[in-house]
Design a protein that fits this description.
The chain contains 6 helices and no strands. By secondary structure, the protein is mostly helical. The chain has one domain.
């Protein structure tokens, strides 16, 4: 998917979320949620329960249990879930459009100013066909180096190397301690 396609599809889903707020429909909400989940998963990766809980998507405040919802309760539920998911879609749109963040499914497109566009292999030579099409982190070699961070990273690696053998047994264990 290109950056332009992601922006266009996200805007369409935001518009549909706003329509759901104006004219709530549980069936339309379910289809819209599936379409928006599929788009977000293809762009940013699948969202686990932790992410969804953090976004509070699908967790209405006044949930009805053990009985069918009244039409007013159903409309309130649809509005609440649609507004939460629309907010998540707006964050996604901001990330890809204004901030120019790279996304998982990116196959070229406009990108942000100063960022090359085109097939991932042309933009980043580390993305080779022999990697099976796996996505890799964006190239950060153009970022200014921070000497404090670089030294901290070197120190942390040295400390970790000093403890590589910690999972090995140090002394034989007595028979009665074996289980």
């Amino acid at each position: 998917m290109t950056r332009d396609e992601l922006i266009s599809r996200t805007r369409q889903l935001i518009d549909e979320g706003e329509r759901l707020d104006a004219q709530p429909s549980l069936g339309a909400l379910q289809l819209w949620l599936q379409l928006s989940d599929d788009l977000l998963a293809s762009a940013w990766g699948s969202m686990d329960r932790y992410h969804l809980a953090w976004l509070m998507v699908g967790k209405p405040k006044g949930i009805v249990r053990g009985r069918p919802m009244t039409p007013d309760e159903e409309a309130d539920y649809v509005r609440e879930v649609a507004s939460q998911k629309t907010a998540a879609l707006r964050m996604s749109l901001d990330a890809v459009e204004r901030q120019g963040m790279p996304f998982v499914g990116e196959t070229g497109g406009v990108g942000s100013p100063g960022r090359p566009s085109g097939p991932p292999e042309a933009v980043d030579p580390r993305r080779q066909a022999d990697k099976g099409g796996a996505d890799v982190a964006p190239d950060r070699t153009g970022l200014p180096a921070d000497p404090v961070l670089a030294q901290g990273l070197a120190d942390a690696r040295a400390r970790a190397d000093a403890h590589r053998d910690h999972d090995e047994h140090r002394a034989p264990r007595p028979d009665k301690m074996q289980r």
